[in-house]
Design goal:
This protein is an alpha/beta fold and 324 residues long. It contains 9 helices and 15 strands. The longest helix has 21 residues.
């Protein structure tokens, strides 16, 4: 038996229960991993609340972790007991001391990267990569808007986009988060609790607007984000921390011939080859210093409910990691 977080009903942080579970042995094509560090992502909140449907009830949440392989399924090659591996994506279940994973979903963690760093960045880093390179290809001279610029993905978006030569405008909720966003490469930081971000973006861009908006906030920012775009601009809505955006009529996009997309990582890193390419690029950006990983908060796995409450309460910045 191992300890894990289990969810029997959808709801607030209090539905996260710490209890014993039986995980069994890996089958063909699987590995068993003893987790050393577990990444907390807003998608975990979405599954807990039912914004995204979990596969069944009860379930163990979590989509990201780094751990050590403790057993391999029969006939499996390429993975050995003792390997340090990372994973991000499906299946759910990382909020556990140990878990069974498909072998083709784990990637080797470079020895130079601490497990806590690895668990804090793989999902967010691969998300950042496809947002900047696939959803919309950010190039030198572009001006972009990043909401929640001090958050886990927001921090990486600012750093990576800056390295690509873009002018980065970021929104944050507090002066403290504004300082971090500046350090992470934001050329202009807007404290949206004190000023209207649409008016400020209009001022900063001399009325031209931005090429692309990266919006993980959703309901509270969506309409304003559309207003910030220039002609033929790209609206990338990849999260909804404030709730689902209101429906958008197609005619709303016609005013500027806008593009709108709602992407997820699982549709971009589909094959094993893509997974290795994405992960390799993220690890390389850490090694080269392009990405500075901010693990500003760690919690014991048993206190996942408190971590969720703090994340939703906007009491966190950067990445949050759970330690088994």
């Amino acid at each position: 038996m191992v300890k894990a977080i289990r969810v029997y009903e959808l709801g607030g942080p209090e539905v996260l229960k710490w209890e014993d579970v039986e995980i069994g042995e890996p089958k063909e094509g699987e590995v068993r991993v003893r987790n050393k560090a577990i990444g907390l992502n807003f998608i975990d909140v979405y599954f807990r609340k039912g914004v995204y449907q979990p596969p069944s009830l009860p379930f163990t949440p979590g989509v990201e972790a780094v751990g050590v392989v403790t057993a391999v399924g029969p006939g499996l090659t390429g993975r050995e007991v003792g390997d340090v591996v990372a994973y991000a994506g499906r299946p759910l279940g990382s909020y556990a001391e140990e878990q069974i994973l498909p072998a083709n979903k784990v990637v080797p963690l470079p020895p130079s990267i601490d497990p806590v760093i690895g668990a804090s960045i793989l999902s967010k880093g691969m998300t950042t990569r496809f947002l900047l390179h696939q959803c919309f290809k950010v190039e030198p001279g572009h001006t972009i808007l990043v909401h929640a610029a001090a958050g886990g993905v927001g921090s990486l978006l600012c750093q990576w986009a800056n390295a690509l030569g873009a002018t980065v405008i970021g929104t944050v909720s507090t002066k403290e988060k504004a300082v971090q966003a500046k350090e992470d490469g934001c050329h202009h930081v807007i404290i949206y609790t004190q000023e209207d971000f649409v008016a400020r973006v209009t001022e900063i861009t001399s009325g031209n607007g931005v090429e692309v908006v990266y919006d993980s906030v959703g309901k509270d920012t969506f309409q304003g984000s559309l207003s910030c775009l220039k002609l033929r601009g790209y609206m990338v809505s990849f999260g909804q921390s404030s709730g689902r955006p209101d429906p958008v009529p197609l005619s709303a996009l016609a005013a500027k011939s806008l593009f709108l997309t709602r992407p997820t990582l699982m549709h971009y890193a589909v094959t094993r080859e893509e997974l290795l390419e994405f992960a390799g690029d993220v690890f390389a950006k850490i090694a080269s210093g392009v990405l500075k990983v901010r693990v500003n908060h760690t919690y014991p796995l048993s206190e996942a409910a408190k971590a969720h409450a703090d994340l939703e309460g906007r009491k966190t910045s950067g990445s949050v990691v759970l330690i088994p």
